[in-house]
Design brief:
It is a single chain. This protein is mostly beta strands and about 110 residues long. Helix content is about 0%, strand content about 50%. It contains no helices and ten strands. The strands form two sheets. It has a six-stranded mixed sheet with strand order 2-10-9-4-5-6, with no helix packed on it. A four-stranded antiparallel sheet has the order 1-3-8-7, with no helix packed on it.
Length: about 110
């Protein structure tokens, strides 16, 4: 199993980023996938999840600013992030729901 995140970086408050996760080594189209983040000195928290059929679920703090999507044919998972704030600064991870399989993460830093 391999999960490789990309797309993180430095962005100003109010800006946007698109995170991507390339998946391989498992039946991607059969698993619910998660984006999880870890803020500095905090526990990891679920950001969003998406089922194989595209049904999504979001944490309350997302407030419509983030959109999770997947392409089962391309085996990719995306997180579109808009109206970013400094509180979104974190390492973002791609995860197979219900398993211990995580990517290495991609860092997002939002500055004011």
């Amino acid at each position: 199993v391999q999960l490789v995140e990309s797309g993180g970086g430095l962005v100003q408050t109010g800006g946007s980023l698109r995170l991507s996760c390339a998946a391989s080594g498992f039946a991607f189209n059969m698993y619910t996938m998660n984006w999880v983040r870890q803020l500095p000195r905090k526990e990891r928290e679920l950001v969003a999840s998406i089922r194989p059929n595209g049904v999504t679920n979001y944490a309350d703090f997302v407030e419509g600013r983030l959109t999770i999507s997947r392409d089962n044919a391309e085996r990719t998972l995306d997180l579109h992030m808009n109206h970013l704030t400094t509180e979104d600064t974190a390492n973002y991870y791609c995860k197979i729901a219900g398993t211990g399989h995580w990517g290495e993460g991609t860092k997002v830093t939002v500055y004011s």
